[in-house]
Amino acid sequence: MSHYCDSAPGHPFHGLYHDLVYGFPLRDDNLLFERLVLEINQAGLSWLTILKKAENFRRAYDNFNLEKVAAYDEKDRQRLLQDAGIIRNRLKIAAAIENAGRILSLRDAYGSFGAWLDHHHPRPKEAWVKLFKQTFRFTGSEITAEFLMSTGYLPGAHRPDCPVYTRILQRQPPWADV
C-alpha cells in the first residue's frame, strides 16, 4: 500500500501540504477550525479537490473566524450553497456553522479549542472518535482520525523515514509526548 510520503512530494498541491502542513501541531483555534471544516468537506471526495479549493473555503468562511462563522444566518447559508468555489453540500455547510458555535463553547469552558484537545489527550483513536461524535456534527471515524493526525494529536501522518517526520518531532506534536 502506498503511503502519502511516497506520492505527495513534488506534487503541485499535495507536495506543499505534505511538506509544510500535514502532521504539524496547530494551536490557533481558527486554524484548527479550518482543518476540521476541510476534513469534513473531504468526506466522499478526494483530498486534492479540497486542496485546490482551500483558498476559496478561506474566502467563503471569512478566513475561518469562529465568531463570524458561528453567527452565520440563513442568508450566509444560501450564499455558501451558491458558491461554486467550495463544496456546496447543505449538511457540510450546516456542520461548519454549528461546529463553530460548539468550538466557541469549548473555548469558554477550556480557554481554547487546543486546550480542549489537550485536556482529552492522549486517548486511542476509537475514544477520540466517540468524543468527536458527541461534540461535533459530521465527524465520523475517518474525519476525526485525519483531523487529529493532520494537527499532531495522533501519529501516522508521516513515516519515520520521511524527512518531514523529523521536522514535526522538533515541533513537539502532542502524540510524541505519549
Describe what you observe in this structure.
It comes from Geothermobacter hydrogeniphilus. Zn(2+) binds at residues 5, 18. One of its GO terms (biological process) is base-excision repair. Keywords: Metal-binding, Zinc. The chain has 178 residues and is an all-alpha fold. It has helices spanning 4-7, 14-20, 29-42, 47-60, 66-70, 74-82, 90-110, 113-120, 125-135, 141-150, 163-170. Helix 3 (29-42) crosses helix 4.
Q: Treating each run of at least 4 consecutive H or I residues as one helix, how many helices?
A: 11
Name given to the CATH architecture: Orthogonal Bundle
Please count the beta strands (DSSP E, at least 2 residues each): 0
User: How many structural domains?
Assistant: 1
Mean pLDDT across the residues is 97
